[in-house]
Amino acid sequence: MSIYDIPLHTLNGDDASLAPYAGQTTLVVNVASKCGLTPQYAGLEVLQETYSARGFNVVGIPCNQFMGQEPGSAEEIQTFCSTTYGVTFPLFEKVDVNGDERHPLYAELTQATGTDGYTGDIRWNFEKFLLGPDGTVQRFAPQVTPEDPNLVAAIEAALS
């Protein structure tokens, strides 16, 4: 099974997967609304707006495993993201990214080695996985902002 075939649900509970993004460049990010890194939503939206015409997508996957920083319902998460940060990129259901209940998507993603050499559990909210159109996965630490030159360069290289 490809990473694109793993069953997901949209934020409002509809069946989904990453299949619509196969062959494109996609940044998968575990997000949270009450985290010190939450302002990264703004930069993620800028990336979405800047590169979407070239086949780039940001995908947000809420997670409440890090100090309860995503406690909201699906409706609360959607409202917060759209009204506070103008988020237009898709948000999927809230999932566990670590532990016994880790979502199968994150079971796959956490096998990737980060640009900093790290492999294993998600360290915090806003860990990023750049899926290339060729199936490659690049991992970026939570503190790597959407504006970081290394992340932007990786996105641009994947789009060329």
Structure, described:
Helices cover about 25% and strands about 15% of the residues. The chain is globular and about 40 Å long. About 35% of the residues are buried. It has a single domain (about 5-15, about 25-160), classed as Glutaredoxin (3-Layer(aba) Sandwich). β5 and β6 form a beta hairpin. A four-stranded mixed β-sheet has the order 4-3-5-6, with helices on one face. A two-stranded antiparallel sheet has the order 1-2. The protein has four helices and six strands. The chain has about 160 residues and is of the alpha+beta class. The two termini are about 25 Å apart.
What's a quick, concise take on this entry?
The protein is α+β, with helices and mostly antiparallel strands and 160 residues long. It has helices spanning 40-51, 74-85, 104-109, 149-159; strands at 8-9, 15-16, 25-31, 56-62, 128-131, 137-140.
**What's the number of extended β-strand segments?**
6
Radius of gyration, CA atoms, in whole angstroms: 14 Å
Mean pLDDT: 96
- Strand order across the largest sheet: 4-3-5-6
Main β sheet profile: 4 strands, mixed
What is the structural class? alpha+beta
Strand content: 15-25%
List the secondary-structure elements in sequence, H or E: EEEHEHHEEH
Number of domains: 1
- Kindly report how far apart the N and C termini lie: 27 Å
CATH class wording: Alpha Beta
